[in-house]
Automatic annotation (TrEMBL):
Keywords: DNA damage, DNA repair, DNA replication, Hydrolase, Magnesium, Metal-binding, Mutator protein. It comes from the Bacteria. InterPro entries: Mutator_MutT, MutT-like, MutY_C, Nudix_hydrolase, NUDIX_hydrolase-like_dom_sf, NUDIX_hydrolase_CS, NUDIX_hydrolase_dom. The gene is mutT. It holds the Pfam family NUDIX_4. Its EC number is 3.6.1.55. It catalyses: 8-oxo-dGTP + H2O = 8-oxo-dGMP + diphosphate + H(+); 8-oxo-GTP + H2O = 8-oxo-GMP + diphosphate + H(+). It comes from Psychrosphaera haliotis. Belongs to the Nudix hydrolase family. GO terms for biological process: DNA repair; DNA replication. 8-oxo-dGTP binds at R33, H38, E44, F45, P46, G47, N129. NCBIfam families: mutt. The lineage of its organism: Bacteria, Pseudomonadati, Pseudomonadota, Gammaproteobacteria, Alteromonadales. This is 8-oxo-dGTP diphosphatase.
Length: 140
């Protein structure tokens, strides 16, 4: 049994997160986590927490509008995983977004940039993203 912050792993609250792998041709859109956030200063697939009343798809559309000012118009399931950080457990639902309306910009002050797959694979990401990066290397 693993105990973290006085709780067993099974007692820790699971934070559900919708994340977008936004692909346009051979480029991927990433945002950089603000320095003061958990895993700050690292690049990430945009998205955020899923509210208790939301589906993954609905949460992702909302988060992309709030964070980037875009509306996803075509998204599909890509991968789901649970990852344990020492201080929390996250359940990530990755969606592949291949079509959207609007021009992406960092609405919360974060950097937003397009990268080739080769560039993307060299960037620092939160640890929970590493299994998906390995999948991207071979699948997309």
């Amino acid at each position: 049994m693993t105990i973290v912050n006085g709780k067993t792993k099974t007692e820790q609250k699971v934070i559900r997160v919708a994340a977008a792998i936004i692909q346009q041709g051979d480029r991927f859109l990433l945002s950089k986590r603000l320095d003061h956030l958990h895993q700050g200063g690292k690049w990430e697939f945009p998205g955020g927490k899923i509210e208790s009343t939301e589906s993954v798809a609905t949460a992702l559309v909302r988060e992309l509008q709030e964070e980037l000012g875009i509306t996803a118009t075509h998204q599909s399931d890509f991968h789901e995983l649970v990852f344990d950080y020492p201080e929390k457990r996250v359940q990530l639902y990755f969606q592949l977004v291949t079509e959207f309306n609007g021009e992406p910009e960092g609405k919360e002050g974060q950097a937003v940039q397009w990268f080739s797959k080769r560039e993307l694979l060299t960037l620092p990401f939160p640890d929970a993203n590493k299994p998906v990066l390995a999948m991207l290397e071979t699948q997309l």
